[in-house]
């Protein structure tokens, strides 16, 4: 490169400067020398090399002691380039007849350190011009320039908003520059989370270059402009027994630390931190809640509805009633919104609500009235009715001859609650029969039966006894030689229709037999009447025959 028409060598600070002698070596060369020129133009010789003796001599110049090297082709090298090496150096070739000179300009460049933002503000306040920080780039040569950026865009100086002051200081011992650029800035709310940086522009051997600092984010303080109240934890509904927290917040930075909370039923605001806790809330907590700054400015409100569900079961708990009695049952619901009610009996869901106009044993059991509140998670209530149906023992006895004609089965059908104890005895002798078999006790009913083969007529007694009463019933049983007509046993309600059909069939048969008997009687009467008429004719004929016999006997006597 040429500077003002002269050959220029660009060197990096600290590297080796290499300057070739740009003269052609003439014939008869005696020696070559290098010098540099002082600012006033006077020369300072620094290196000498003889063409004949091949020896090199370096002048006693303190700035270049142990730094110079002159090659055979008269190229001069200077180690550890300094800013002070920026001079005009001259190569001289000397013959007996002539002295040739060729100057070289040396330029030294030093890249500055990465810029840093120092003396940063602890925080920035809106609507206030204040010192943001200083961008410092050290040890540059030649001097550089500093530019400030916000979110990647250049900050242009603006009166009372952006004020930039650049200082450049040179180190006299090294000749290197330090650039310091201070930035005064008036932030806005939008500068929260903005990235500020600075870039130093400098010149190097190959031209203009830049280095950027690490970005810095400042805490921007701004006043609260809006207050917001919210209910925590956030959920769609609140029910009695829940714990809730009211949280009040302001959109300022830093956010307010204290607020006034206004609770329904309280005339004055309650001073608290940014939260107000309510535990085990009740339905009377329903209402409008507010919060404001402590100076009563900027208020916000929210409405809280505490859902509730009450269930009243009448009667409830354990209830004992007598069979046949009536028992009205009611399950009353009071709630904050529509509730769903259903009944469960002995772990089975019922299709309708229970109603007892005449209690039966099968009505006994555990009843649960349960209700849930629609769209309110976890809000349900239940109450239990344990119904006990008691009854005195009732007995019906039946007997039949078994198909083998060798024994008879006597059954004692018992109902009652608590379950009666059954005992069999033989009337007269008073002996107890212990070989009875019992069926399963279901809905207050069961049967006890015995199988006997009596040699003579006996009377059996069935005794059923519970806490309410002792019931005794007897039945005459014929000897095994006399068949007993089978007697129908109790039939369940499920078979009532079948029993009715059989009864109708029996009645029809009986009526048919009666009609047949009537017809047979009429026919028989007619037959008897006809027979009597014929008998009279026979008797008359027999009379005539007897008269004839008597006449003949008389005639025979008279003849004799």
Helix content: 10-25%
- What is the radius of gyration? 66 Å
- The first-level CATH class of the largest domain is given as Mainly Beta
Name of the CATH superfamily of the largest domain: Immunoglobulins
> What structural class should be given to the helix and strand makeup?
mainly beta
Reported CATH architecture of the largest domain: Sandwich
Biggest beta-sheet profile = 8 strands, mixed
**Helical stretch count?**
1
Number of strands: 44
In round numbers, the mean pLDDT is: 87
> What is the CATH fold-level name of the largest domain?
Immunoglobulin-like
Domain Ig-like: 103-212, 223-305, 324-386, 393-473
InterPro entries: CD80_C2-set, Ig-like_dom, Ig-like_dom_sf, Ig-like_fold, Ig_sub, Ig_V-set, Surface_Rcpt/Adhesion_Mol
Main location: membrane
Subcellular location: Cell membrane; Cell projection, Axon; Cell projection, Dendrite
Structural description of this entry:
There is one protein chain. Residues 489-505 and 530-560 have low confidence and may be disordered. 11% of the residues lie in helices and 46% in strands. It contains one helix and 44 strands. The strands form eleven sheets. Strands 32, 34, 35, 36, 37, 38, 41 and 42 form an eight-stranded mixed sheet that branches. A seven-stranded mixed sheet has the order 1-2-10-9-4-5-6, with no helix packed on it. Strands 14, 15, 18, 19 and 20 form a five-stranded antiparallel sheet that branches. The protein has 560 residues and is mainly beta. The longest helix is centred in the C-terminal third of the chain and has 64 residues, at 496-559. It has five domains: 8-109, Immunoglobulins (Immunoglobulin-like); 116-221, Immunoglobulin-like; 227-304, Immunoglobulins (Immunoglobulin-like, Sandwich), CATH 2.60.40; 309-389, Immunoglobulins (Immunoglobulin-like), CATH 2.60.40; 392-477, Immunoglobulin-like (Sandwich), CATH 2.60.40. It is elongated and about 195 Å long. The termini are far apart.
């Amino acid at each position: 490169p040429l500077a003002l028409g002269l050959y220029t060598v660009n060197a990096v600070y600290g590297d080796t400067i290499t300057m070739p002698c740009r003269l052609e070596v003439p014939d008869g060369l005696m020696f070559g020398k290098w010098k540099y020129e002082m600012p006033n133009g006077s020369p300072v010789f620094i290196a000498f090399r003889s063409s004949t003796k091949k020896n090199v001599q370096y002048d006693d110049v303190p700035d270049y002691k142990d730094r110079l090297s002159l090659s055979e082709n008269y190229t001069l090298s200077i180690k550890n380039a300094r800013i002070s090496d920026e001079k005009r150096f001259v190569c001289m070739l000397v013959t007996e007849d002539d002295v040739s000179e060729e100057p070289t300009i040396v330029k030294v460049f030093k890249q500055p350190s990465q810029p840093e933002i120092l003396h940063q503000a602890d925080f920035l306040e809106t609507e206030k011009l204040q010192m943001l920080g200083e961008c410092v780039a050290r040890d540059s040569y030649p001097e550089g320039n500093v530019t400030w950026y916000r979110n990647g865009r250049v900050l242009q100086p603006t009166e009372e908003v952006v004020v930039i002051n650049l200082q450049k200081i040179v180190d006299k011992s090294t000749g290197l520059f330090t650039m310091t650029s201070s930035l005064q800035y008036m932030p806005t709310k939008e500068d929260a989370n903005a990235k500020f940086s600075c870039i130093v522009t400098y010149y190097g051997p190959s031209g203009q270059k830049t280095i950027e600092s690490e970005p810095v984010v400042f805490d921007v303080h701004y006043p609260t402009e809006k207050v917001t109240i919210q209910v925590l934890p956030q959920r769609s509904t609140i029910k009695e027994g829940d714990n809730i927290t009211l949280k009040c917040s302001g959109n300022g930075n830093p956010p307010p630390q204290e607020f006034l909370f206004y609770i329904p039923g309280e005339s004055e605001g309650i001073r608290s931190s940014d939260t107000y806790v309510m535990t085990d809330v009740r339905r009377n907590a329903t209402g409008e809640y507010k919060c404001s700054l402590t100076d009563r400015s900027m208020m916000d409100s929210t409405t809280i509805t505490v859902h509730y569900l009450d269930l009243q079961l009448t009667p409830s708990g354990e209830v004992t009633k007598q069979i046949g009695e009536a028992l009205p049952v009611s399950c009353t619901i009071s709630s904050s919104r529509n509730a769903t009610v259903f009944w469960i009996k002995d772990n089975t869901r019922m299709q309708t609500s229970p109603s007892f106009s005449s209690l039966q044993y099968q009505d006994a059991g555990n009843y649960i009235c349960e209700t849930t509140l629609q769209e309110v998670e976890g809000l349900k209530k239940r109450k239990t009715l344990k119904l006990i149906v008691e009854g005195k023992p009732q007995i019906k006895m039946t007997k039949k001859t078994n198909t083998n004609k060798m024994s008879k089965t006597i059954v004692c059908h018992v109902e009652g609650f608590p379950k009666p104890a059954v005992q069999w005895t033989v009337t007269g002798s008073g002996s107890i029969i212990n070989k009875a078999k019992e069926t399963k006790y279901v809905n207050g009913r069961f049967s006890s039966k015995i199988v006997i083969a009596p040699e003579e007529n006996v009377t059996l007694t069935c005794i059923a006894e519970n806490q309410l009463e002792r019931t005794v019933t007897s039945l005459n049983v014929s000897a095994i030689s006399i068949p007993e007509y089978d007697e129908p046993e109790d039939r369940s309600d499920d078979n009532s229709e079948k029993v009715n059909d059989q009864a109708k069939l029996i009645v029809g048969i009986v009526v048919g037999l009666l009609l047949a008997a009537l017809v047979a009687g009429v026919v028989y009467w007619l037959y008897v009447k006809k027979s009597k008429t014929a008998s009279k004719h026979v008797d008359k004929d027999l009379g005539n025959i007897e008269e004839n016999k008597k006449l003949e006997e008389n005639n025979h006597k008279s003849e004799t």
